[in-house]
Write a structure and sequence with these properties.
single chain; four-stranded parallel sheet; two-stranded antiparallel sheet; binds iron/sulfur cluster
Length: 225
Protein backbone atom coordinates (compact mmCIF):
# COMPACT_ATOMS: atom_id res chain seq x y z
CA UNK A 1 0.00 0.00 0.00
CA UNK A 2 1.22 3.51 -0.76
CA UNK A 3 1.02 6.86 0.99
CA UNK A 4 0.60 10.12 -0.94
CA UNK A 5 2.50 13.03 0.65
CA UNK A 6 2.85 16.72 -0.19
CA UNK A 7 6.38 16.98 -1.56
CA UNK A 8 7.15 20.10 0.50
CA UNK A 9 6.51 18.10 3.72
CA UNK A 10 9.25 15.72 2.59
CA UNK A 11 11.71 18.60 2.22
CA UNK A 12 11.29 19.44 -1.49
CA UNK A 13 11.88 23.17 -1.98
CA UNK A 14 8.67 23.53 -4.00
CA UNK A 15 6.79 25.98 -1.76
CA UNK A 16 5.65 29.20 -3.49
CA UNK A 17 8.64 31.14 -2.08
CA UNK A 18 11.15 28.40 -2.89
CA UNK A 19 11.21 27.10 0.69
CA UNK A 20 10.06 23.78 2.10
CA UNK A 21 7.65 22.65 4.82
CA UNK A 22 9.87 19.72 5.82
CA UNK A 23 8.24 17.79 8.61
CA UNK A 24 10.35 15.22 10.45
CA UNK A 25 7.36 13.35 11.94
CA UNK A 26 5.83 12.88 8.49
CA UNK A 27 9.20 11.78 7.10
CA UNK A 28 9.53 9.22 9.92
CA UNK A 29 6.02 7.95 9.20
CA UNK A 30 6.97 7.42 5.54
CA UNK A 31 10.01 5.28 6.31
CA UNK A 32 9.52 1.74 5.02
CA UNK A 33 6.39 2.65 3.06
CA UNK A 34 5.85 3.25 -0.62
CA UNK A 35 5.59 7.03 -0.89
CA UNK A 36 4.11 9.01 -3.76
CA UNK A 37 5.31 12.61 -3.37
CA UNK A 38 3.07 15.17 -5.08
CA UNK A 39 3.29 18.89 -5.65
CA UNK A 40 0.14 19.83 -7.58
CA UNK A 41 1.28 23.38 -8.25
CA UNK A 42 4.56 22.23 -9.82
CA UNK A 43 2.66 19.47 -11.65
CA UNK A 44 0.43 22.18 -13.09
CA UNK A 45 3.46 23.87 -14.66
CA UNK A 46 3.81 26.75 -12.19
CA UNK A 47 7.36 27.97 -11.53
CA UNK A 48 9.11 28.03 -8.16
CA UNK A 49 9.29 30.63 -6.74
CA UNK A 50 5.82 31.91 -7.70
CA UNK A 51 3.31 34.37 -6.32
CA UNK A 52 1.24 33.02 -3.42
CA UNK A 53 -2.28 32.02 -4.37
CA UNK A 54 -5.57 31.52 -2.59
CA UNK A 55 -9.02 30.22 -3.48
CA UNK A 56 -11.50 33.06 -3.86
CA UNK A 57 -15.12 32.01 -4.39
CA UNK A 58 -14.04 28.74 -5.96
CA UNK A 59 -11.38 30.22 -8.26
CA UNK A 60 -7.65 30.18 -7.50
CA UNK A 61 -6.09 33.62 -7.89
CA UNK A 62 -2.58 34.84 -7.17
CA UNK A 63 -1.73 37.82 -4.98
CA UNK A 64 -1.99 40.14 -8.00
CA UNK A 65 -5.54 38.95 -8.66
CA UNK A 66 -4.71 36.92 -11.79
CA UNK A 67 -6.47 33.59 -12.15
CA UNK A 68 -4.16 30.57 -11.88
CA UNK A 69 -7.13 28.27 -11.56
CA UNK A 70 -6.44 26.26 -14.72
CA UNK A 71 -2.87 25.42 -13.65
CA UNK A 72 -4.02 24.37 -10.17
CA UNK A 73 -6.74 22.10 -11.54
CA UNK A 74 -4.45 20.64 -14.21
CA UNK A 75 -1.81 19.96 -11.54
CA UNK A 76 -4.32 18.24 -9.27
CA UNK A 77 -5.53 16.07 -12.16
CA UNK A 78 -1.92 15.13 -12.99
CA UNK A 79 -1.29 14.12 -9.37
CA UNK A 80 -4.37 11.90 -9.44
CA UNK A 81 -3.15 10.37 -12.72
CA UNK A 82 0.27 9.76 -11.14
CA UNK A 83 -1.40 7.82 -8.33
CA UNK A 84 -3.31 5.86 -10.97
CA UNK A 85 -4.47 2.46 -9.82
CA UNK A 86 -1.94 2.18 -6.98
CA UNK A 87 -3.64 1.12 -3.75
CA UNK A 88 -3.31 4.18 -1.53
CA UNK A 89 -4.14 4.03 2.18
CA UNK A 90 -3.74 7.67 3.00
CA UNK A 91 -2.65 11.11 1.81
CA UNK A 92 -0.84 13.46 4.20
CA UNK A 93 -1.07 16.94 2.71
CA UNK A 94 0.04 20.43 3.75
CA UNK A 95 -2.53 22.24 5.84
CA UNK A 96 -4.23 25.41 4.53
CA UNK A 97 -2.62 25.31 1.06
CA UNK A 98 -4.92 26.27 -1.84
CA UNK A 99 -3.83 22.96 -3.42
CA UNK A 100 -3.18 20.63 -0.51
CA UNK A 101 -5.17 22.10 2.41
CA UNK A 102 -8.03 20.13 3.93
CA UNK A 103 -10.86 21.44 6.09
CA UNK A 104 -9.56 25.02 6.26
CA UNK A 105 -8.02 27.27 3.62
CA UNK A 106 -7.36 31.00 3.23
CA UNK A 107 -10.30 33.00 1.91
CA UNK A 108 -8.71 34.74 -1.08
CA UNK A 109 -8.22 38.11 0.63
CA UNK A 110 -4.52 37.44 1.35
CA UNK A 111 -5.09 38.59 4.93
CA UNK A 112 -4.49 35.13 6.45
CA UNK A 113 -8.22 34.76 7.04
CA UNK A 114 -9.28 31.12 7.20
CA UNK A 115 -12.55 29.71 5.95
CA UNK A 116 -13.85 26.12 5.79
CA UNK A 117 -12.85 24.38 2.57
CA UNK A 118 -10.37 22.16 0.80
CA UNK A 119 -7.52 22.88 -1.57
CA UNK A 120 -8.05 21.85 -5.18
CA UNK A 121 -5.93 18.68 -5.05
CA UNK A 122 -7.11 17.63 -1.57
CA UNK A 123 -10.70 17.89 -2.81
CA UNK A 124 -9.95 15.81 -5.92
CA UNK A 125 -8.16 13.08 -3.96
CA UNK A 126 -11.02 12.86 -1.48
CA UNK A 127 -13.53 12.64 -4.30
CA UNK A 128 -11.47 9.72 -5.61
CA UNK A 129 -11.93 8.00 -2.24
CA UNK A 130 -8.46 8.66 -0.84
CA UNK A 131 -8.53 9.54 2.88
CA UNK A 132 -6.69 12.83 3.47
CA UNK A 133 -5.06 14.08 6.68
CA UNK A 134 -3.16 17.33 6.98
CA UNK A 135 0.25 17.06 8.62
CA UNK A 136 -1.28 18.89 11.60
CA UNK A 137 -4.00 16.25 11.96
CA UNK A 138 -1.30 13.58 11.77
CA UNK A 139 0.73 15.33 14.49
CA UNK A 140 -2.41 15.65 16.65
CA UNK A 141 -2.88 11.92 16.25
CA UNK A 142 0.69 11.28 17.42
CA UNK A 143 0.05 13.54 20.42
CA UNK A 144 -3.12 11.60 21.20
CA UNK A 145 -1.07 8.38 21.17
CA UNK A 146 1.48 9.92 23.54
CA UNK A 147 -1.28 11.01 25.91
CA UNK A 148 -2.69 7.48 26.01
CA UNK A 149 0.82 6.13 26.67
CA UNK A 150 1.31 8.60 29.52
CA UNK A 151 -2.06 7.68 31.04
CA UNK A 152 -1.40 3.94 31.00
CA UNK A 153 2.35 4.24 31.54
CA UNK A 154 3.22 2.34 28.37
CA UNK A 155 6.80 2.50 27.16
CA UNK A 156 7.07 -0.42 24.74
CA UNK A 157 7.94 0.83 21.25
CA UNK A 158 5.95 -1.90 19.47
CA UNK A 159 2.89 -1.19 21.60
CA UNK A 160 3.24 2.49 20.76
CA UNK A 161 3.34 1.75 17.03
CA UNK A 162 0.25 -0.46 17.34
CA UNK A 163 -1.61 2.31 19.19
CA UNK A 164 -0.60 4.90 16.62
CA UNK A 165 -1.67 2.64 13.74
CA UNK A 166 -4.99 1.91 15.45
CA UNK A 167 -5.74 5.63 15.86
CA UNK A 168 -4.65 6.33 12.31
CA UNK A 169 -6.85 3.52 11.00
CA UNK A 170 -9.84 4.90 12.93
CA UNK A 171 -9.36 8.27 11.22
CA UNK A 172 -8.97 6.67 7.79
CA UNK A 173 -12.05 4.47 8.28
CA UNK A 174 -14.10 7.48 9.43
CA UNK A 175 -13.00 9.34 6.29
CA UNK A 176 -13.99 6.40 4.09
CA UNK A 177 -17.38 6.09 5.81
CA UNK A 178 -18.10 9.76 5.18
CA UNK A 179 -17.84 8.89 1.46
CA UNK A 180 -20.02 5.75 1.80
CA UNK A 181 -17.11 3.32 1.75
CA UNK A 182 -16.18 0.72 4.33
CA UNK A 183 -12.79 0.19 5.92
CA UNK A 184 -11.44 -2.39 8.36
CA UNK A 185 -8.33 -2.34 10.51
CA UNK A 186 -6.13 -5.40 10.84
CA UNK A 187 -3.11 -5.42 13.12
CA UNK A 188 -1.23 -7.96 11.01
CA UNK A 189 -1.38 -10.01 7.78
CA UNK A 190 -3.16 -12.93 9.39
CA UNK A 191 -5.94 -10.71 10.70
CA UNK A 192 -6.17 -8.93 7.33
CA UNK A 193 -6.60 -12.30 5.60
CA UNK A 194 -9.25 -13.38 8.10
CA UNK A 195 -11.22 -10.16 7.61
CA UNK A 196 -10.91 -10.25 3.80
CA UNK A 197 -12.12 -13.88 3.64
CA UNK A 198 -15.03 -13.11 5.97
CA UNK A 199 -16.18 -10.40 3.54
CA UNK A 200 -16.29 -12.72 0.51
CA UNK A 201 -19.45 -14.84 0.48
CA UNK A 202 -19.07 -18.57 -0.23
CA UNK A 203 -19.33 -19.34 -3.96
CA UNK A 204 -18.86 -15.76 -5.15
CA UNK A 205 -16.36 -14.56 -7.78
CA UNK A 206 -13.64 -12.11 -6.74
CA UNK A 207 -11.45 -9.90 -8.94
CA UNK A 208 -8.22 -8.46 -7.53
CA UNK A 209 -7.55 -5.55 -9.90
CA UNK A 210 -3.79 -6.20 -9.59
CA UNK A 211 -3.88 -5.65 -5.82
CA UNK A 212 -0.42 -6.14 -4.32
CA UNK A 213 -1.97 -6.18 -0.83
CA UNK A 214 -4.18 -9.13 -1.76
CA UNK A 215 -1.02 -11.00 -2.77
CA UNK A 216 0.92 -9.93 0.30
CA UNK A 217 -1.66 -11.06 2.84
CA UNK A 218 -2.10 -14.42 1.06
CA UNK A 219 -5.64 -13.74 -0.12
CA UNK A 220 -4.96 -14.79 -3.72
CA UNK A 221 -3.53 -18.15 -2.61
CA UNK A 222 -6.32 -18.67 -0.06
CA UNK A 223 -9.00 -18.13 -2.70
CA UNK A 224 -7.27 -20.41 -5.20
CA UNK A 225 -6.97 -23.18 -2.60
S1 LIG B 1 1.23 22.60 -3.76
FE1 LIG B 1 1.18 21.30 -1.97
S2 LIG B 1 3.09 20.14 -2.18
FE2 LIG B 1 3.30 21.89 -3.54
S3 LIG B 1 4.32 23.41 -2.28
FE3 LIG B 1 2.12 23.78 -2.09
S4 LIG B 1 1.52 22.68 -0.26
FE4 LIG B 1 3.51 21.88 -0.87
Amino acid sequence: MAVVVSACLLGEPCRWDGGTNRNEAVIRFCQGQEVIPVCPECAGGLPTPRLPSELREGVVVNREGDSVDAAFREGAARCLALIGEKPVTLAILKARSPSCGKGQIYDGSFTRTLVPGNGVCAELLQQAGIPVLTEEEYLALLKETENIENKIGGSNMNQNIVKRNTLLAQKVIKGLQSRNMSGYYAADREEALRIALSLIPEGSTATMGGSVSAQEIGLVDALKA
